[in-house]
Amino acid sequence: xxxxxxxxxxxxxxxxxxxxxxxxxxxxDGADGMNGTNGxxxxxxxxxxxxxxxxxxxxxxxxxxxxxxxxxLDGLTLAxxxxxxxVALSFTGVRDGSSAESAxxxxxxxxxxxxxxxxxxxxxxxxxxxAPASTDSVRAVAGxxxxxxxxxxxxxxxxxxxxxxxxxxxxxxxxxxxxxxNDAFATDxxxxxxxxxxxxxLWVNHEYVSGGRPxxxxxxxxxxxxxxxxxxxxxxxxxxxxxxxxxxxxxDTFVExxxxxxxxxWVRVVQDPSTGAWExxxxxxxxxxxxxxxxxxxxxxxxxxxxxxxxxxxxxxxGVVAGIQAxxxxxxTPWGTIxxxxxxxxxxxxxxxxxxxxxxxxxxxxxxxPGAAITFDYAxxxxxxxxxxxxxxxxxxxxxxxxxxxxxxxxxxxSYYEAGVGHRKIGTMGRAHWENATVAVGADWGLVDGxxxxxxxxxxxxxxxxxxxxxxxxxxxxxxxxQVRALLDDATLYVAHFAxxxxxxxxxxxxxxxxxxxxxxxxxxxxxxxLDSDDVAPNATALGEAGTTxxxxxxxLDYNGIGGFTSNDDVLRxxxxxxxxxxxxxxxxPEDLEYNPVxxxxxxxxxxxxxxxxLNEDGVLYDPAMHAMQAPRRSDSLGAIFAMxxxxxxxxxxxxxWGGSSGQGMYDAANPDNLVxxxxxxxxxxxxxxxxxxxxxxxxxxxxxxxxxxxxxxxAFRVVAVPSDAEATGPSFTPDLRTLFFSVQHPGEDxxxxxxxxx
Length: 759
Fold this sequence. Notes:
Mean pLDDT is 91; it is low at 1-72. Among the domains are: 104-209 and 261-288 and 660-759, no CATH class; 345-380 and 429-657, no CATH class. By secondary structure, it is of the alpha+beta class. The strands form five sheets. It has a nine-stranded antiparallel sheet, with no helix packed on it. A six-stranded mixed sheet has the order 10-9-14-13-12-11, with no helix packed on it. Helices cover 12% and strands 23% of the residues.
């Protein structure tokens, strides 16, 4: 109980107390006082320490799928888009207890299998050649492994931004240059099949982007859609790429990136010693050459219609043009440059020879009419793939393209040809739908001292011809690379006239209605193609003008119902028209030519020809009004490989080395395209169209030319097959023949494919 002392103290003070008395006894406790009022709240105390983590909660239920975005990035991916790719087919060896175990490279493996077939000793269960089939994969015979090295839209560096260096679309021609090969030119007069076999540089062509391009009223399809998706993922495009309405600004952006995806790649590749796999060296000085003005090339040997400009409108030096495009096949030259062939350029800025239909009917009113000099419309068309850009600076004249382009590999893309260094278009060879080129060399693959430089090439179009450029001065041992290159600036151009061919087939001899053979070949002649030529025009007698020279025929304003050429530059601008005018025999699409120094033959792949021709058997132009009813339609749907042997007197022998087939089983193959000659003279080829003709995949084949094997001679043996309706193209070997590089072009172009992604 609480004591109450306050009242006693107050009484004492009031009475005036005296001295203190003794303490009294303690009083009783007082009653409790009333409770006091509540005090104000005190300030908050400091925060306490964190408690221990709680236990993990249980997994939540799966969320439902999100809706597709209309024009955003939701659900957008390239994971299942088929992508053109560069593939390495590497030798691994076999362990089947047979003689094939001693093979050291791809060629020896194939030869061992052929010898086993000849001897009836092919090991049980061995599949050779590769069985025909159509799969969404790359299949190969035992003893090799196939592996993707680079795909379209793979970065060629460690940069992944939209302006980085990317591997281009629809890979085609390849050329491998082993480490140290360039040093061999000074001593061996060649870089071909020289240098290392496990590391080096690869050139790869990028021909086109397939599919329907986007427009103001339509969305892109096929590869065009793949490119649009990539640009959307890179935030370069912000529109709804799937919509049927693209504005001009987005179309312009698309065109600019379309131009970046064609041309060629120069990329360093190395092989992993432990696995044999090939990889791109992303830290190397890899270079892309394309159709933009980032790539500059000088045109030599022919005058141009005017000065070109870059894509910003700045005028370029005289003879220098912006970009390369439509690059199909090509060649590695002995002096170490790359020839990349511009083929179907008419789709970008328009056709400089619009007077011919796809059935070779001559069209009047296009600047080539008889009775007048031939004239050209050089202005780029507004509806071409590149010409539809709204900025006129992005458009370039038609005559700046359709050349054999000589790239100085590794030199910056902007370094045009000067003093023997840099990139040029070989104008002395003229303009055509060039597929490829090949250089004549000695048995050791080197240039021959005292002999002229000889360059062969094919015009890959229905009724296209074969041409040869011969330098007027010879190669001399010890020449520098620049001096060798200069030889082609002063040269004479010839066209091959396959006299005696049946005009209805383009393959049989007219006199026998049978294919020419090595024992009974046909004979053709080379014709100088210029206004100065004294050679007799093939159709002179049939036109009632016997003895008329090629030069006179080309200049005549009415000869063969076609207008006249006023200059050699005009002849070079329009090679197809010039050869039609003088009556050169039409051919069945000469896609590829390869010079074989081991047997001295030039091999030619004739892919097919199922359209009408423009000339009769004697080289006379069909009346355009009667063409549809009179001109024969060639029936070559299978194609063939011919061989040409120079006779040394301006003539050549020609014969069929292999013919396409259908409906006959294991060895069926059709539509030969690219060729490659291995270091020992073996002939290999790829097909383009076999899938449509025979129902199984296009592939790469070895053509047996060894007559000592009676059961395999003349047959083609499938070594590797590609997916879907893709084209097997651009084969090239490493110097040790242990790796064969090739391109899988346009997988899924017309059929469903997801290659190279896993299903």
